[in-house]
Write a structure and sequence with these properties.
Number of strands: 13
CATH class of the largest domain: Alpha Beta
Strand order of the largest sheet: 7-6-8-9-10-12-13
Largest sheet: 7 strands, mixed
CATH topology of the largest domain: Rossmann fold
Radius of gyration: 25 Å
Number of helices: 13
Number of domains: 3
Structural class: alpha/beta
Length: 345
């Protein structure tokens, strides 16, 4: 026989409404009453009917997370953290993969999936401010990354220009003067445009020329793109670079493979910096110096902001939140010193 809230109430000696209040974590329930109800739930093995609760309340307690590619380490790690933070708040996460496809991304913006979720955390590749302005769906949405939101929706992300500046300045500080950039063409990626900007600013601040021949476009951010780009860079006429700043860790890891295949030493001949602090970089040979976004902070702010909008009875002001990052110095720029931990700045 199915156990009901009335059964729990009878066992705990309280009203059925009190059981409901405890299940929904409402305040103003005394600790001793809450403990009695929880004990009764445990003894009776009561399982709340979440579907029925959703129908009654109009709340699913499900949020969406849409990312370009789940097999990219950064997005896989971010998804794990969003799920962890959401579960801590009693939420379930429905994950969608857009593959950066423009039509799929517009489906997310225009509410195709919002019948299932209370709100959406979204890391788009190509969504524009104009497309956000046309959005008719009112389900809360929080954007991650660096697409322009035109002040229309909440946004959480790091300062990509400052981060790229820091990465490039590190290469200057260790004595490198011909510093290349591997990344995506500016017209195709807002993130790449911002990271190239930071790279160029750091070179100019150091009195170094910006050499267009050292800026190498990639079709995308996969390892195969990094292989093609690094080969392209090394095959160009003129002196080879003594350092490379890569727009992502995947490009950097693939680029290092090419450098080693060409008989070049990392970092002695060519120092390499990545971006994202993917877990693989801690275990690669050499280990990878990288920009480390605070992914936990990004997840916490995004989930918290989404909940605030979902729970609010009125419109809240749009927030653009800049999160923390650090430069993690490892062997690909600092050389090998067994037993010493990476430096963070």
């Amino acid at each position: 026989m199915t156990v009901t809230q009335m059964d729990v109430a009878a066992r705990a000696g309280v009203a059925r409404k009190t059981v409901s209040n405890v299940i929904n974590d409402y305040p103003h329930v005394s600790d001793d009453v809450r403990e009695r109800v929880l004990q009764a739930i445990k003894e009776l093995d009561y399982r709340p009917n979440h579907a029925a609760r959703s129908l009654r309340s109009g709340r699913t307690r499900v949020i969406g997370l849409a990312v370009p590619e789940l097999d990219v380490s950064y997005f896989a790690e971010l998804a794990r953290l969003v799920v962890e933070v959401a579960q801590e708040r009693g939420l379930t996460v429905m994950i969608m993969q857009t593959l950066g496809d423009a039509a799929r991304e517009l489906d997310v913006v225009n509410g195709t999936y919002t019948q299932f979720v209370e709100g959406m955390i979204y890391s788009p590749v190509s969504v524009s401010g104009a497309e956000l302005e046309k959005r008719r769906d009112r389900t809360p949405i929080v954007l991650l990354g660096e697409r322009s939101t035109a002040g229309l929706v909440d946004h959480v992300g790091i300062d990509n220009v400052a981060a790229a500046r820091k990465a490039t300045a590190h290469l200057v500080e260790i004595g490198r003067r011909r510093i290349a950039f591997l990344g995506t063409q500016r017209t195709a990626s807002e993130i790449a445009r911002l990271r190239v900007t930071g790279y160029e600013e750091a070179l100019r601040a150091a009195g170094l020329p910006v050499d267009a021949g050292l800026i190498v476009p990639t079709a995308a951010y996969h390892r195969s793109d990094g292989v093609v780009a690094m080969r392209n860079l090394l095959d160009r006429p003129g002196p080879r670079p003594d350092a490379v700043f890569c727009a992502t860790d995947l490009l950097a890891q693939a680029g290092i493979r090419v450098l080693l295949e060409r008989g070049l030493r990392v970092p002695e001949d060519v120092a390499v910096v990545g971006f994202d602090d993917a877990d693989e970089g801690r275990y690669s040979t050499p280990t990878l110096t990288t920009i480390s976004p605070d992914k936990r902070q990004i997840a916490e702010i995004a989930v918290t902001r989404l909940l605030a909008r979902s729970d609010s009875k009125k419109d809240l002001p749009v927030e653009d939140t800049v999160t923390d990052f650090s430069l993690v110095v490892r062997e690909s720029t600092a050389g090998r010193s067994p037993g010493s931990p990476p430096r963070t700045s």
